[in-house]
Amino acid sequence: MAKLSEILKSRGYIYQHSSEKLSEITDGDKRTVYLGVDPTADSIHVGNLAVYMLLRRFAEAGHKIILLIGGGTALVGDPKPDAERALNDASVVAARAQMLQSQAEKLLGGVEVRVVNNADWLTQLNLMEFLRDTGKHFTVNNLIKKDAISARMKSDEGISYTEFSYPLLQAYDYWHLYDQYGCDVQIGGSDQWGNIVAGVDLIRRKENATVFALSCPLVLDKATGKKFGKSEDNAVWIDPKMTSPYAFYQFWLNASDESVEDYLKLFTLLEDMEVAAIMELQKRDAKERHAQKTLAREVTTLVHGTDEAAKAERVTQVLFGEASLAELDKEGTATLKAAAPTCMVKAGALVADALIVSKLATSKREAKQFLKDRAVILNAEVIADDKRKLEASDFHMGLALLKRGKRNVCVLQLEN
Length: 416
Fold this sequence. Notes:
Keywords: Aminoacyl-tRNA synthetase, ATP-binding, Cytoplasm, Ligase, Nucleotide-binding, Protein biosynthesis, RNA-binding. GO terms for molecular function: ATP binding; RNA binding; tyrosine-tRNA ligase activity. It is found in: Cytoplasm. One of its GO terms (cellular component) is cytosol. The protein is of the alpha/beta class. It has 3 domains: 4-216, 3-Layer(aba) Sandwich (Rossmann fold); 230-328, Orthogonal Bundle (Tyrosyl-Transfer RNA Synthetase); 340-414, RNA-binding S4 domain (Structural Genomics Hypothetical 15.5 Kd Protein In mrcA-pckA Intergenic Region, Chain A), CATH 3.10.290.10. The chain is built from 19 helices and 13 strands. The chain has helices at residues 4-11, 22-26, 49-60, 90-107, 119-122, 127-133, 140-143, 147-154, 161-164, 166-181, 193-207, 245-253, 260-267, 272-284, 290-304, 306-319, 330-339, 351-357, 364-372; strands at residues 16-17, 32-37, 64-69, 114-117, 185-189, 212-216, 230-231, 234-235, 342-345, 376-378, 381-383, 399-404, 408-414. The strands form 3 sheets. The chain has a 6-stranded mixed beta sheet, with helices on both faces. Strands 9-13-12-10-11 form a 5-stranded mixed beta sheet, sandwiched between helices. Helix 16 crosses helix 17 and helix 18 packs across helix 19 (364-372). The longest helix is centred in the first third of the chain and has 18 residues, at 90-107. It is elongated, with a radius of gyration of 26 Å.
C-alpha cells in the first residue's frame, strides 16, 4: 500500500512543507491536522476544494482532523493584496460559519472530525495579555515581508492595523489547538503560507516544540493559465442554491483536455490505475471526452450525491443528443427546464414559427433556410419540411427539445 506522502505527491496536493522530508509529517506517528476556514461567504467554492480533498486524504490515512471555522478571524479579515476587506456583522459571520461547517463535514465523507470555532477563544482574549504573551514573539520587520501586507503597504490605500494583526491571530489559533488538542500540522492554500508558518514559529518560541505546516498549490487551468474555480467570471459554489447541481456538473464537464488529468487526481477519489485507464480511453477517442464525463460525475457525486449527479448527467445527455427526452422523470424534466432556455408554444404551431419564438432563428426566411439545410432537430427527428407542425405526440410531460445545429437548443413547453 502506498504511503500517504507518495499519494499526496503523485496526486499534486503538495506545494510547500516545513519539514525537510514530507514523510516526516505524513508517514510516521498519527498526527492531529487542522484546516482553518474563514466564513467570508455563504458557501465553499470549487477554488477551495483541493485543500478539503487534502484534509480528507489525511483523515482516510488515520490522522485526527480538526476543522477550524474562523468565526473570530472573519470579523477582522485576512489582508488581501489589493484592498481592505469589508467588515462583516457578527450575526452574518455566525450564520456563514454554520453553513460552511455542514458543507465541510459532507466533503470529508463522514469521517470523524472535530469542528471548532475560533470565536470561542479569540473574542475572550485579554488585549494586554495577548500583546505581552503573543505579540512579543513577532517583529514588524518580518510581518511587512509577507506578500499581502507588503503589497498593501506600497499602495496608496495602505493597510489598517486590524488586518496587519491577522497573522498574529492565525498563529494564536495554531498555538491554541496545539495546547488544547495536541494539534501538530496545519494545512492550507499556498496563499496562506506566511500565516501558517507564523503559527509554527509561535509554538516553537512559546513551547520549544516542533510542529508542521503544509500547503496546496494554486490550481490553474493549463489551457488558459487562469485561476481555477471560475465559470464565465462567476465563482462555482458547492451550495446548490448558489450553483445548481446541473451547472456544477457542466463546469467540470467543460474542463480542458490539458487540465482534466490533474483534476481527476486532485478532486476525485479514483485510484491511480483508474485515472490511468480513463486517460488511455481519452487518448484513443478524445471526442468522446471520457475523462471530462468521469470527472463531472465523480465530483458532482462527491458534493451533491449520487441522485443529483445522475440527474445532471442524464439531462446533459438529453440536451446533447445522447439520450431521449422520454427517459426523463418529473424531477429530470424540472432540471431540464432550469438548465436550458425555455419558451411556450401551442400544439399546431409550425416548427418554423417555433424556431423564431425560441430565438433559434431571427426570421421566417432564416427558419426556412435552416429547415432546408436539415439543421433543425425536434427531439431526435431531423425536420426539413417547413409545413411541419408541432403535435401533442411530440411532447413528453409537456416538453419537447428543439435544436438548431449541435449546440443551439431550446426546451419547448406546451401551453395548456
